[in-house]
């Protein structure tokens, strides 16, 4: 293709438009983060009056990020926080996201998941921009459809992360459903051999491997951390959407609670 080829001309024009868009977005980010234009937070307003407070132990402070990307991470942190807040306002549904994260066994917070959605959305914007540039170079499409294509790419990236979370939860519950008969049989064999409900749970959690046995280990860890075993089992039932597993866990909780009451009466 020669320099006078209209396809090459379209590519150069769209490349220039892309560079101008990036430069414009950078200028907007700089202006938005200027102290004179930035809204003063509650912490900034209260900070001058609490400077004499005793600082917390340095052992409780999170270590600042280190490495070659530390500076970039600190620079992008305010922008990422604003983007996470925007996604939260548009999508909402914190309780649904929290429940799915619990069903997945993920200890990440809702804010961390929203940050992942922002990253996926940026990736979708880049893919949409690339597709728009190729489409403009090949067919010389008008500007509004190309801008719409870029925006659709960003929205698709955000929604794709949400779909990936739901799919991961569904696959995990399928694995738990496949493991359930084996775990239930081992628990029944342990109880019939003379072990109590707690001992049977510990034996199965220790000898088995898989998603369901991992949930049993988490339940026992919560019980050792101070919660009653009945409360920990109820938490396991609340974290699953499988009716059969929820009924089974409720039955074990009732059995453990009845044994505890009988032991208290004997004492």
UniProtKB/TrEMBL annotation:
Keywords from the UniProt entry: Membrane, Transmembrane, Transmembrane helix
Transmembrane segments: 12-32, 118-136, 142-160
Superkingdom of source: Bacteria
Name this protein carries in UniProt: Tight adherence protein C
Naturally occurring in which organism (per UniProt): Pseudokineococcus basanitobsidens
């Amino acid at each position: 293709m020669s320099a006078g080829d209209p396809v090459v001309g379209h590519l150069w024009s769209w490349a220039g438009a892309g560079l101008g868009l990036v430069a414009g977005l950078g200028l907007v980010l700089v202006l938005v983060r200027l102290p004179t234009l930035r809204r003063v937070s509650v912490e900034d307003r209260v900070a001058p009056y609490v400077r004499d407070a005793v600082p917390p132990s340095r052992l409780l402070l999170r270590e600042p990020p280190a490495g070659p990307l530390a500076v970039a991470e600190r620079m992008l942190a305010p922008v990422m926080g604003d983007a996470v807040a925007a996604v939260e306002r548009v999508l909402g549904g914190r309780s649904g996201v929290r429940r799915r994260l619990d069903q997945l066994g993920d200890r990440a917070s809702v804010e961390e998941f929203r940050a992942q959605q922002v990253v996926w959305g940026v990736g979708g914007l880049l893919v949409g921009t690339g597709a728009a540039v190729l489409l403009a170079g090949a067919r010389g499409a008008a500007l509004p459809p190309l801008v719409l294509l870029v925006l659709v790419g960003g929205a698709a990236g955000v929604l794709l992360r949400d779909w990936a979370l739901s799919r991961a939860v569904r696959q995990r519950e399928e694995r738990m459903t496949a493991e359930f008969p084996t775990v239930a049989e081992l628990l029944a064999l342990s109880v019939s051999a003379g072990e109590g409900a707690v001992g049977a749970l510990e034996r199965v959690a220790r000898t088995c491997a898989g998603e369901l046995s991992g949930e049993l280990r988490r339940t026992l860890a919560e019980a050792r951390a101070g919660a009653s075993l009945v409360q920990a089992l109820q938490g396991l039932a609340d974290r699953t959407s499988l009716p059969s597993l929820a009924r089974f866990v409720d039955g074990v909780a009732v059995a453990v609670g009845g044994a505890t009451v009988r032991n208290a009466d004997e004492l």
